[in-house]
Amino acid sequence: MTKFRNLSQGRGYLAIPGPSVMPEAVLNAMHRPAPNIYAGELVDMMPPLMEDLRRIAGTQHHVAMYIGNGHAAWEASLSNVVAPGDKVLVPATGRFGIGWGDAATGLGAEVEVMDFGLQSAMDIDQIAERLEADTAHEIKVVLAVHVDTSTSVVNDIAGLRAALDAADHPALLMVDCIASFACDRFEMDNWGVDVMVTACQKGLMVPPGVSFVFFNDRAAAVREALPRVSRFWDWTPRANPQEFFQYHCGTAPTHHIYGLRAALDMIHDEGIEAVWDRHETLARAVWAACDAWGSAGDLALNIADPALRSHAVTALRLKAPQATELRDWVEGNIGLTLGIGLGMAPKDSPESHGFFRLGHMGHVNGQMVMGMLGGIEAGMSALDIKRGTGALEAAAKVIGGA
């Protein structure tokens, strides 16, 4: 038998659902000496940068930038509209909905979770019934995750707004777009979203460390009615700065701003509609391959209905412990890193080794996705994982437009 030669030398491919692949243009923009933070280029960059973020979000309203990850954006958004004792409704479809609700609990909110499981989208009818039953309007905020990165489900945010409107319910609609921003179609104003949070390390293709809270005038009015908001979390001076330091409540994330400028230029050069279309096509290629593999084996897409799948991340199931074995093999032998299963089973349980995820977000093209799928095929072959044939051909037909 010929001994297998390790083929992991060369540039690795990080195919996890964030941090995503960073373009050379972003890395090059960040590779510079520290700039002046009081005058000049950096100061001049901020107003058009914030406007370009609004364009991607589909809003004419406000945006505040924070030095911090997505969890920071969760807390920032909540700190501006939720007071201790306020009732918060969380229609959860995975780990990140639960997590945002937990952040609200940490701020003293009374959190009610409607858990729709790990393989389903939100049930808008059930949520509508709950809102209609809240005749006293005790619920102040609804926290919804557009794409839950753990399950790869995409939720109907416009439908959720329609349910709120039909019930004549005044609760703020707050949406987590950390996984979906600049990947899956999202239209803040057209969909009636009051507050949206996202971060820079996925569709925006920038190293982790900066997050954003978008909010409309309804949400701003709730903020103004609160007796206090901490100086750091307060979104008002960040969204309406009188001095440059107020954008970030202190020293700016200088190099992230340069990287973000380069990333936004790339997105706007392509056009957001084209960005969404690219992600959709690449996602369909991934699904086609997975359907072929699953036709004669244990591999299965976590979300059965294609209409409910994200275009940024795909969660998959295998017979345990094959998912972990596959991830270990492709990373160690061919330099391909796949995402772990997250929140699908208790961390230390045998079942946890039966899940993995593919990130296809941000700086990703057809040959990269074909390479990722080819790497998975090689790993399943090496590990003798039972599977159907024709996966790469199926993906190639999608990418080739057949």
TrEMBL record:
Which parts of the chain span the membrane according to its record? none
- Cross-referenced InterPro entries: Aminotrans_V_dom, PyrdxlP-dep_Trfase, PyrdxlP-dep_Trfase_major, PyrdxlP-dep_Trfase_small, SP_NH2Trfase/AEP_transaminase
**Gene Ontology CC terms:** peroxisome
One GO MF term: alanine-glyoxylate transaminase activity
Gene Ontology BP term (one): glycine biosynthetic process, by transamination of glyoxylate
Q: Which cofactor does it need?
A: pyridoxal 5'-phosphate
Q: Which residues form the Aminotransferase class V domain?
A: 76-291
Q: Which keywords does the record carry?
A: Pyridoxal phosphate
Q: Which Pfam families match?
A: Aminotran_5
Give the family per the record: Belongs to the class-V pyridoxal-phosphate-dependent aminotransferase family.
In Swiss-Prot or TrEMBL terms, this protein is called Aminotransferase class V domain-containing protein
Please tell me the species this chain comes from.
Answer: marine sediment metagenome
